[in-house]
Specification:
The protein is mostly beta strands. It has 1 helix and 15 strands. The chain has a 14-stranded antiparallel beta barrel.
């Protein structure tokens, strides 16, 4: 049960990471290196379009595409050619209802295709995710705050219950702010209106289906690949205005697990567990 719960939390976190408040994001991440991969690069493209229904209600339609590129330079005891490129494709369908001046309700449904796609799309590639969130924001005061409470369900986790989401942000001083919660915690120093330095503790990862099962030396079959990392990092953000920014993060993984899993989500082979440098940079247009 503990293993299932841990894997469920990992995939919930990975799902919530993709369901951000961004309208547009272009991002490159150098994921942690390991003995079996000299470099893992992730290219991420996201776009969401809000459709106004009235002054209090919006629909949101969007999509996200991630390409994960492995630069393998060591020999596994199996053929790893099919792991060189992995893809994740999300369709984002959302509903936003502003209940009053402080509270907003958000519902998100995200069909996902996550696979190495060496063949045509298979039913194992498709997962359905959803989340329900309540956001309380009070941003027009001297010390603005934002509270996010909700639940998220990810059908890839193997844990058949919705899992909680919580995040709290406060700017307690003109030059200082913090955010605590899952999947990210941050402490920011606002040097000027356009320049922000930050420290962060964050979770990252993914799960994808492997269409042609990988046969391991002990005759186990690897039918899925998961990555989970806990990262400590420092970063810089340049704001063109309150919604548009460039950002960068560099840090080191505090915990890391890259695992081949069988059809029952059990571990059958560890690809890499050693930590290394983590780097992320990108451009985004966000709601806040």
């Amino acid at each position: 049960m503990k293993k299932i719960l841990g894997f469920g939390l990992l995939l919930m976190v990975e799902f919530v990471l993709s369901q951000s408040s961004d309208l547009l994001r272009l991002e490159y991440t150098a994921l942690p290196e390991g003995e079996s991969a000299r470099r893992i690069s992730r290219y991420r493209f996201l776009a969401n379009v809000p459709i106004k229904l009235n002054n209090k209600r919006y629909l949101v339609a969007g999509a996200e595409y991630s390409l994960i590129d492995f630069d393998n330079d060591s020999i596994h005891p199996f053929d790893d050619e099919e792991l060189e490129k992995l893809r994740i494709i999300d369709l984002n369908l959302g509903y936003i209802h502003r209940l009053n001046e402080e509270w907003t309700f958000v519902g998100l449904v995200t069909p996902r295709l996550a696979s190495n796609f060496v063949n045509k799309v298979q039913k194992e590639d498709l997962k359905l995710n959803f989340s329900l969130l309540s956001i309380k924001a009070n941003m027009k005061v001297d010390k603005p705050t934002r509270l996010v409470l909700g639940v998220s369900y990810n059908s890839a986790t193997g844990f058949p219950l919705p899992l909680p989401i919580i995040s709290y942000y406060k700017r307690f001083h003109p030059k200082w702010s913090y955010m605590v919660g899952i999947p990210r915690m941050e402490f920011k120093y606002h040097i000027k209106k356009r320049h922000i330095f930050k420290t962060a503790l964050l979770l990252d990862g993914y799960f994808v289906n492997i269409q042609n099962n990988i046969v391991l030396p002990d005759n186990d079959l690897g039918s899925g690949l998961s990555l989970s990392v806990v990262v400590g990092a420092v970063g810089y953000q340049y704001n063109f205005n309150k919604n548009i920014s460039l950002y960068g993060l560099v840090g080191h993984t505090l915990s890391q697990r890259g695992i081949l899993r069988n059809e029952k989500r059990k571990r059958v082979y560890s690809l890499y567990n050693d930590g290394n440098v983590y780097f992320k940079t990108g451009f985004k247009i966000g709601i806040f």
